[in-house]
Amino acid sequence: MALFPQSFIDDLKQHADIVLVIQDYVSLKKTGATYKGLCPFHGEKTPSFHVNRDKGFFHCFGCGVGGDVLKFLELHEKIGFADAVRQLAQRFGLSMPELEQSDDQRASALERESLLKIHEAAAAWFRQQLASPAGARVRAQIASRDVTAATNEALGLGYAPQGRDELKKALLRQGFSQALLVRAGLLVQRDDGSTVDRFRNRLMIPICRDTGSVIAFGGRAVEADQQPKYLNSPETPIYSKGRTLYGLNLSKAAIRQGKFAVMVEGYFDFAQVYQAGVRSVVASCGTALTPQQAQQLRRFTDKVVLSFDPDVAGQGATAKSCEMLVAEGFEVNVALLPPGEDPDTFVRRHGADAYAERLRRSQPYLEYMLDRVSAGHDLRSDEGRVKFLAEMLPIAARIPDVNMRDRFADRLAFKANVTDEVVRSQIRSAAVQKQTTIARRESPNPGNVTQAEKGLIWWLIHEPAAALAGLAALDQADLEGLTSTSVLDLARKLNQDSGFSPSLLLERLNTAESQLVTGIASEGEAHVVDASECTRILKRRRFERERAAIQRDIDRLQQRGDDAPRGELEQLLVRKYDLIQKIERLG
Ligand SMILES: [Zn+2]
């Protein structure tokens, strides 16, 4: 494991304002001393996600997750501590100290870097080819699709020429190795070992990370009979289709500002909508959205307007995408277009204003499904009503918010003309039962933490000096058997070894401990008047526990009657008396 000097981590956390970092993913509002927003770790409608800028931690009162800025990145980006440090250092422009890395780590980091470089070089070369005489035909095709020069440039479109190894020759000349070209998916290796350009005679669409780095390509056929129509890069160490949303690099700022994203299907839908001035657009590129893509998007918004061909909306991949987004807690609207039209053709035929109007008139997804499904059944017949409910209940079941789900179940009952209250409540509970398919994060149960522990932990974060003095007055035995033993132990150890700070404590906690600590620290006050009072309570608790244990021993001995060794009993009584005095002194 790569280890970083503590001074570097401290420096990093000094620079990395937790509010700024989290705002990359969650929109936060200042409320009093803390910032609040919708939790990115569970679906919710009312904000229970708190960020404390001064103390450098976040906590969600809904799902219990919490920690410092590094923990946030670890959990949110699903990366390890070391990667979180790197990402944060990059974000705030701190150069990384020289690290002890394993050969494997160094090799894979180097490979990812080389893969990014080769994609950048390939994208530049494809752009050159598009501008060259060989690219004339494709330029004409792009123009015939009403893509302007400015949009073309923003998208970084290019052309992969006809020849079998033109890109290969060009990139080998630039010093890239053939092995890397294969690894990047730009060359295809044949069984006989020979290699050939993957993309030949194709319009090239670079696919980027939201940071703008090119990580893959989509290649569109130039000839009408060329198969397949779209050819994509394979998955590589830097590209995973299910984790990438097309165009997010261009639209993320507008999405955050506008507080919603328009989701279209294809590259050219994206191009037209973007060109029409709706800058908060992303493309799913045909397949059903994954929860990872939803997470990508949630960093910027939790509202999505789906703008697909109405012939396919509510079916197959689109329906799956909608349901997944609803289940992930997104507010999903559907913007309907005339039958047979997609955003690309619609914008070109009817213009930007007409498209914007369609977006404004978009309908909540659940309403849309209700209308759509009910139109498909005869709700005057029992059979039609049963079929209607059978189709709608699974959709209702995926609504994460229980109140919303109940309300929707009532609407279903109304729509299906079910007036009987018993049946209505059956519909509600059917929707709830299916809910088990959606994994809910278990809330940690800090219920066993005593007030005194809570107090000490609160003071550790808000007034460390007092809490440390309180901790120093405790013996190891005072801490035994507490829910928070590991946390208080760690605080004592840090204090002895390297100097305690709230930030260092938060950094060293595991996920469960982190939840516990941030939960307590997010509360407005300590609940216990001061840290020394916590010490007193904990000490007293230990003495009382010891006294109870001694009492059990005494009872056991006395049950043996005359057999009982007198000396032992005497000793126990002395210790018991001693403890009673200690307890009385503590008050
Ligand atoms: Zn949460």
What can you tell me about this protein's structure?
The chain is an alpha+beta fold. The protein is built from 26 helices and 16 strands. The strands form 4 sheets. Strands 1-2-3-4-5 form a 5-stranded antiparallel sheet. Strands 13-12-14-15-16 form a 5-stranded mixed sheet. Strand 10 and strand 11 form a beta hairpin. Helix 16 packs antiparallel against helix 17 and helix 25 packs antiparallel against helix 26. The longest helix is centred in the first third of the chain and has 29 residues. It is globular and about 105 Å long. About 2% of the residues have low confidence. The structure holds zinc ion. Zinc ion binds next to loops. The site of zinc ion (ZN) has 8 residues, from loops.
Number of strands: 16
Radius of gyration: 31 Å
Give the amount of beta strand, in percent. 5-15%
Helix count from the secondary structure assignment: 26
Which molecules are bound in this entry?
zinc ion
Outline of this structure?
This protein is an alpha+beta fold.
Which helices and strands, and how do they pair?
Elements: H1 6-15, H2 18-23, E1 29-31, E2 34-37, E3 49-52, E4 57-60, E5 66-68, H3 69-77, H4 81-91, H5 103-131, H6 136-144, H7 149-155, E6 158-160, H8 166-173, H9 178-183, E7 187-189, E8 195-197, E9 202-208, E10 214-221, E11 230-232, H10 248-258, E12 261-264, H11 267-275, E13 281-283, H12 291-298, E14 303-306, H13 316-327, E15 331-334, H14 343-360, E16 363-364, H15 365-375, H16 382-397, H17 402-415, H18 421-433, H19 451-462, H20 464-472, H21 476-479, H22 485-497, H23 502-508, H24 511-521, H25 531-559, H26 566-586
Parallel strand pairs: 12-13, 12-14, 14-15
Antiparallel strand pairs: 1-2, 2-3, 3-4, 4-5, 6-9, 7-8, 9-10, 10-11, 15-16
Helix pairs in contact: 3-4, 11-14, 15-16, 16-17, 16-18, 17-18, 19-20, 19-25, 20-25, 25-26
Bound molecules: zinc ion (ZN).
The site of zinc ion has 8 residues, from loops.
